[in-house]
Amino acid sequence: MRCKITIQKTTSNPIHYDYQYGLASMLYKRLAKANINLANETHSHQGFKFYTFSNLVIEDWIPDKRGLNFSKAHFFISSPDSGFIKSFAEGLFLEPEFFLGRGDNKANFIIERMEILSNPTFGDDCTFKTLSPVYVKTQRKKGDKLVEVDLYPKDSKFYENLHKNITARYKEYYGKEIEYDNFEVLEVTDVKPKRISIGNSYRRCNHLNLTLQANPDLIAFAYDAGLGEKNAMGFGCVDLIELH
């Protein structure tokens, strides 16, 4: 299930370009407002988290050298768990005012509208575009230590780990293996590398378009739960742009 959330900025200040962490924190607080037990369960869960959200889609850019400035935008939040999305929506409805950023890059917002969207019909061959960048990592040996390495689409391990991640999350969510586990990325275009601050660290990730051939159930799960890692921090939200 996917919800479109339209927001209005009520102050003139810009926000910092790295706003994902602040948006993730706000969403968690609104979930706790509506359903504290679900919020605590989500926060303490050591496995995967089954929701994702998009970057802000700016509707009226305002040129500003101090940061990202606009008056109106929207974003999407999605999950295979409809009850989870409804709890988010309820929390946002109960407390529609929020802020993003700090200091000179702090701005106030209000939720203007929320709309539950119908999911597309998926086949086994679809082209997606990212609404928030995809993050994939691996571990590689450096000297006598294993170090964490962020992956780019030029690395074949990117696709291997993308596949492993989505099937592992599907299994944890549904409690069973996906049937007919075919997963092949046929084409990747419009790759735009990003470096995003999350808490006290940076993640190297990618906006891109990708044509994916897979079990339609796995494709639908990727649409709802996101592709790649750190989905609950605003990575891997995708939109269907073509059904082949």
TrEMBL record:
Cross-referenced Pfam families: Cas6_I-A, Cas_Cas6_C
Gene Ontology BP terms: defense response to virus
Domain (CRISPR associated protein Cas6 C-terminal) ranges: 120-240
Sites marked Transition state stabilizer: K49
Keywords: Antiviral defense, RNA-binding
GO molecular function terms noted in the UniProt entry: hydrolase activity, acting on ester bonds; RNA binding
Signal sequence, renumbered to the chain: none
Gene3D superfamilies: 3.30.70.1890, 3.30.70.1900
Active site: Y28 (proton acceptor), H43 (proton donor)
Function: CRISPR (clustered regularly interspaced short palindromic repeat), is an adaptive immune system that provides protection against mobile genetic elements (viruses, transposable elements and conjugative plasmids). CRISPR clusters contain sequences complementary to antecedent mobile elements and target invading nucleic acids. CRISPR clusters are transcribed and processed into CRISPR RNA (crRNA).
PANTHER family per the UniProt record, alphabetical: CRISPR-ASSOCIATED ENDORIBONUCLEASE CAS6 1
Family in the record: Belongs to the CRISPR-associated protein Cas6/Cse3/CasE family.
Protein's name in the database: CRISPR-associated endoribonuclease
